[in-house]
Design brief:
Helix 2 packs antiparallel against helix 3, helix 7 packs across helix 8 and helix 9 crosses helix 16. The chain has 19 helices and 58 strands. It has 5 domains: 91 residues, no CATH class; 160 residues, Jelly Rolls, CATH 2.60.120; 286 residues, 7-stranded beta/alpha barrel, CATH 3.20.110.10; 281 residues, Beta-galactosidase, Chain A, domain 5; 93 residues, Immunoglobulin-like (Sandwich). The chain has 1107 residues and is α+β, with helices and mostly antiparallel strands.
């Protein structure tokens, strides 16, 4: 031994091969790694249950049948699919355990032997589960966690979900691993310092220092009897217990620590990055909602343990990282499923280690939900955080979303949020976003502070990731990529934790954070700070006047196909939103006019809103989830939708007995819940009012059933048939003397235009009756078919090159001219003689005597795959920009391709699109579809995709949708596109009326042809009437200015006595806005106010009944 020590002292002065010094150190690291773990003791009394259930309870509390097995060898699960197993056993340290030398690690390592390829509809999700130690939730099992460090031993239980696909997992180890503390420390310190060296410039002084320090460290190790990767045969082992190596570790670690500690430490004036622990848990995606409940509970359990167990090297001086968990829905599930974990979270919040923030109910898509849906996401999420967790919300945290509505800043600001965090815009396909931190200005002029996560991603098409794993590359790169680093030297944000499917921070990542925080001062290498979300924005707020301003939407140059994929999911959402709107409108009338206690209805509607918001998750409504999740959405939504329709009947049944009708016979009452006058064939419905249905108003339900295909566990499918009417008002075609349909000339004449059909079914001419203007440059209603072959993500993406891959258009089969409509029939020509049915397209075109519109009600038997169906209307309109409807307003986008950013928006979201000159224009809207391409005078709308990933049954079968063409005289303001689009997605309410058997009390009755609300200006839209929150005896009226200019209007409630009501402007949280200039009371017997709006301003007014 003395000779060995002498030779080491001599060799430490020799550098024979400087070129390979780092490779040599890495070789040492491999050897050190083999000796981190000294011993392993399998669990005793090991048992397994092979048919456990999907439960959040500790397995021993269930009535399970247990089988004993030997934990000394691996346990083979056999071939599994969507199965749950449970394990239990007793764990104790090996006999040679010395707490001064060793730490304990519970090892439960399940190998992921999937029997399918990834990225088809069988995409793996699992194995994953939870560990209970001595009866308490302790840690998680997932792709990133195969056990947990221990601070106690005893009885352990584990519940494991194997996978949603075919797999043959194997439990490789079940027991306690003995970890050599100093070897573990040495390993992590050398590993991490090597990763830092890799990021430093070649000629860096610090790089040379670190290499020298590591070289001196490893030279002190006695590796004479270590070997890797070939395992030594026992007859070749000289030092069976590696005692010489372990003895040398003390000197090596001491050398490393002492030499590193001699280097100067960073100061508070040095740049830093802000690190926040976070695990992105997709509420659904490659799994349904129920699996997410387990992911949330498992991840929370694991993170709570890690917060309390830093590496022993750093006890008392550990990096005080915090864990952020967003999404109110996940917390609600946690409280229901794992109340003990929920209470521990509340305690961690009080202690400042757990950050409950992010504001929203789920992390939603912001393009497809309605404006009111986005309001409820934030309001109901914020209310939950405040009430259940005592956490004030100021930041919306939405890292993974497929573009952001240009009106989101106003919605955030009026909900009391001034800050927004994301990372997705860094993924852009053609351009690079110019800022990392900036002021985002919405369409009304509202500003919110916006901050991008800048952690570099390993995926080539991403610039940044929200699922950082806290490597040196990521943490150093977070600062390098941060564009505002000179202005804000401590604000670059790194979110640390595995995500998408949960998991969060690992023990290695905790080591990395502590080691990074302990580094000496190195140029370009940031120190770490650990703020909450709220604290992150303190320095940003201080510098907000120096930040650049982005005055536009945040358009993502990817995932454009999510505007079209999974039609049934999108259609159900529109229906839920519409019927929620109607039911709340009826509740307000019952409460305000008739003093009916509506609390039970309000609670039921709030519960329905929670499910509806659940469907707004950013992989749900966009259509980017697996079949199982998509079917889950439909199955959850159907009962809610059915109940809303029942509730409409129930609520109108309480109102109609109070209506005075001139007829003695039974009748039907039609309710119009929109704030503009609405025409149904020959009948005019007053804005926000009701009247007896006239015979001319044909309101029926069509009987076309759509289909949803559910993939079964045996690789087959089940077909679900859904009988749902078109959303657009249940309106039947209506013959009218003012609409002339000439079959011989293939011509339709309305009071507004003359339509001529070509022999191939397209509209070859559309001329304005008054001006003679031709609206079409080429035939309109052209159905276009394209190959749809995205590079990476079929359900998400549409590539620009699809325009290079146009296929023959659907073949026109023929016309059917009727006195009230024109029917068009098409089919897509077959490629061969396979068993797939021919794709057929049937359209019914209806015309109006009241408005310059054509409705195209379309039913498709869609049997294609990897195809994109669009409709095109080439117009004669010359405009360099087009308007697109978004929540509470609209946005203008260029119709040219002058720049890459212009070109990149080749498919964009819209609730409607309008292309107008000063004198006329063409608008297009749909009940379901939202993907528009408006360029070079052509308006296109994407109708159907057929992606095979991640749901091979996406949109297959009977599809059903409508779109509406508006050919208008005058400019945009004369188009009435907002009102006509709202009618497509807001059905009237039809209620049966029976004459009361006793006279109606005149003091408690209402006229048969009346309005609840009168809004004097059609440019102001009353979007929502809803009961007030928190038991307030009153209601909310939410308005917005729809045209983009200053307006004032009068709002009158003819049925409400002004002397009995108080009025005030409130924010979205229904808190009073002090010194608001938007509202002025109008004297008179009827409740009436004058309102003033800026361009696109969203205004919420609270009306409360006086005591």
């Amino acid at each position: 031994m003395l000779l060995f020590t002498f030779l080491m002292l001599i060799s430490n002065t020799i550098v024979a091969d400087p070129e390979n010094m780092l490779r040599k150190i890495n070789k040492y690291l491999e050897l050190i790694n083999t000796k981190r773990h000294c011993d392993f003791k399998p669990a005793e009394n090991a048992k397994v249950c092979t048919n456990a259930s999907a439960s959040h309870k500790i397995p021993s509390s269930e009535d399970y049948k247990w089988e004993s097995f030997d934990a000394n060898s691996s346990y083979k699960f056999g071939e599994t699919k969507y199965q749950w197993f449970a394990f239990q056993g007793d764990i104790s340290p090996p006999e040679n355990y010395d707490p001064k030398i060793h730490s304990l690690y519970f090892n439960f390592h399940v190998t992921r032997n999937f029997l399918v390829r990834p990225w088809d509809d069988d995409t793996p999700a699992g194995p994953e589960g939870r560990i209970w130690l001595n009866g308490k939730p302790y840690a998680a099992i997932d792709e990133f966690h195969h056990g947990a460090s221990l601070n106690e031993v005893g009885h352990v239980e584990v519940r494991v979900f194997t996978s949603r696909c075919k797999a043959a997992p194997e439990l490789a180890s079940f027991g306690i691993t003995l970890v050599h503390r100093k070897t573990e420390s040495l390993y992590h310190r050398i590993r991490f310092l090597l990763s830092v060296i890799k990021e430093l410039p070649e000629k860096s002084k610090e790089r040379a220092q670190f290499i020298k320090i590591l070289d001196g460290t490893v030279r002190k190790l006695d590796i004479r009897d270590l070997n890797y990767p070939i395992k030594l045969h026992p007859i070749r082992q000289h030092d069976k217990n590696a005692s010489a190596f372990y003895k040398s570790v003390d000197g090596a670690l001491e050398h490393l620590l002492s030499t590193m500690n001699e280097l100067p430490k960073p100061t508070e004036s040095d740049p830093a990055i802000s690190v926040i622990g976070y695990s992105h848990i997709d509420t659904c995606w490659l799994w349904p909602y129920d699996i997410t409940r387990f992911k949330s509970a498992n991840t929370a359990t694991s993170m709570l343990r890690l917060l309390d167990m830093p590496p022993s090297d750093f006890e008392g001086k550990e990096a005080k990282w915090r864990f952020l968990a967003t999404t109110a829905q996940h917390y609600k599930w946690l409280k229901e499923d794992s109340p003990e974990v929920f209470e521990r979270i509340k305690e961690a919040i009080k202690n400042g280690r757990w950050n409950a923030d992010g504001a929203s109910w789920v992390e939603p898509d912001t393009s497809l939900p309605s404006g009111e849906s986005l309001v409820r996401q934030i309001v109901m999420g914020t209310r939950y955080f405040n009430k259940e967790l005592g956490s004030k919300q100021t930041v919306m945290f939405l890292p993974d979303c497929f573009g952001f509505s240009a009106n989101l800043p106003q919605i955030l600001k009026k909900a009391g949020l001034d800050s927004f965090v994301t990372s997705k815009i860094s993924w852009c396909e053609y351009t690079k976003f110019p800022y990392s931190t900036f002021v985002w200005r919405g369409i009304d002029g509202s500003d919110v502070l916006t901050h991008f996560i800048t952690t570099p991603s390993a995926w080539s098409y991403q610039t940044a990731t929200y699922t950082g794993v806290s490597t040196a590359y990521e943490m150093i790169g977070t600062l390098k990529q941060y564009k505002q680093r000179d202005l804000l030297p401590t604000s670059a944000l790194h979110t640390s934790g595995n995500g998408d499917g949960g998991g969060g921070i690992t023990e290695e990542m905790v080591w990395n954070l502590n080691l990074m925080a302990d580094l000496p001062r190195i140029p370009e290498v940031p120190r770490l700070i650990f703020p909450t979300l709220e604290e992150l924005f303190i320095p940003i707020r201080e510098k907000q006047n120096e930040l650049p301003i982005w005055d536009d939407e945040l358009y993502l140059e990817y995932h454009r196909g999510t505007l079209t994929s999974q039609e049934e999911v999108k259609r159900q959402n529109r229906q839920l939103e519409a019927h929620l709107h109607n039911c709340e409108w009826l509740c307000v009338i019952l409460s305000s006019v008739f003093h009916v206690n509506i609390s039970k209805y309000q609670q039921e509607l709030d519960d329905t809103w929670e499910d509806t918001m659940l469907f707004h998750f950013h992989d749900a409504i966009p259509g980017s989830s697996v079949n199982e999740a998509n079917v889950d959405i439909i199955k959850r939504g159907r009962p809610r939708l059915t109940r809303l329709r029942e509730l409409e009947k129930e609520l109108t049944g309480l109102i109609t007995p109070h209506i005075r009708t001139p007829t003695k016979e039974n009748a039907q009452i039609v309710f119009n819940t929109l704030s503009h006058t609405r025409k149904i064939q020959g009948q005019v419905l007053k804005a926000s009012g009701w009247s007896v249905k006239e015979d001319s108003a044909a309101i029926v339900e069509d009987d076309v059933e759509t289909t949803t295909y559910e993939r079964t566990l045996d690789e087959n499918y089940v077909v679900h048939k859904l009988k749902e009417p078109f959303i657009s008002g249940y309106l039947a075609p209506c013959a009218s003397s003012k609409v002339l349909i000439n079959e011989q000339e293939k011509k339709v004449t309305t009071p507004f235009f003359e339509i001529l059909f070509a022999e191939n079914g397209t509209i070859k001419s559309a001329k304005d009756i008054k001006t003679g203007r031709e609206f079409f440059s080429h035939p309109g209603n052209q159905l276009e078919l394209y190959e749809d072959r995205p590079i990476n993500w079929p359900a998400w993406d549409i590539q620009l090159y699809h325009k290079e891959m146009q296929l023959p258009s659907p073949k026109f089969i023929g016309f059917v001219f009727k006195n009230d409509s024109v029917e068009l029939k098409y089919e897509i020509e077959r490629v061969g003689d396979g068993p797939a049915e021919t794709t057929t397209i049937n359209q019914t075109l209806t015309f109006s005597e009241n408005e310059p519109i054509i409705d195209f009600k379309t039913v498709v038997n869609w049997t294609q795959h990897d195809k994109l169906l669009k409709v095109a209307f080439p117009t004669t309109i010359r405009s360099r920009s087009a308007r697109f409807g978004i929540q509470f307003g609209h946005i203008q986008r260029p119709t040219h391709k002058n720049t890459k950013r212009d070109m990149a928006r080749f498919e964009a979201n819209g609730r409607w699109a309008d292309l107008s000159e000063s004198s006329s224009g063409v608008s297009l809207c749909s009940d379901v579809k939202a993907g528009f391409d408006v360029h070079e005078g052509i308006i296109r709308l994407s109708l159907l995709k057929a992606p095979m990933q991640t749901d091979q049954w996406a949109d297959f079968g009977i599809r059903k949708f409508a779109y509406r063409l508006i050919l208008h005289n005058g400019g945009f303001e004369e188009s009435k596109v907002q009102a006509l689009a709202d009618e497509m997605v807001t059905p009237v309410i039809l209620a049966n009326y029976s004459q009361p058997t006793t006279p109606i009390d005149s003091s408690n009755s209402i006229p048969c042809d009346a309005q609840f609300v009168e809004v004097s200006d059609n440019g102001i839209v009353l979007e929502t009437l809803k009961p007030a929150y928190d038991g307030v005896d009153g209601f909310i009226a939410r308005f917005y200015e729809a045209t983009g200019g200053w307006r004032s209007c009068n709002v009158k409630f003819p049925l409400l006595d002004a002397s009995k009501w108080e009025t005030k402007v409130v924010d979205l949280m229904e808190k009073e806005v002090e010194n608001s200039r938007n509202l002025q009371l109008v004297e008179g017997p009827q409740l009436s106010v004058n309102l003033e709006f800026g361009a696109f301003e969203l205004l919420t007014v609270l009306f409360t009944r006086k005591p």
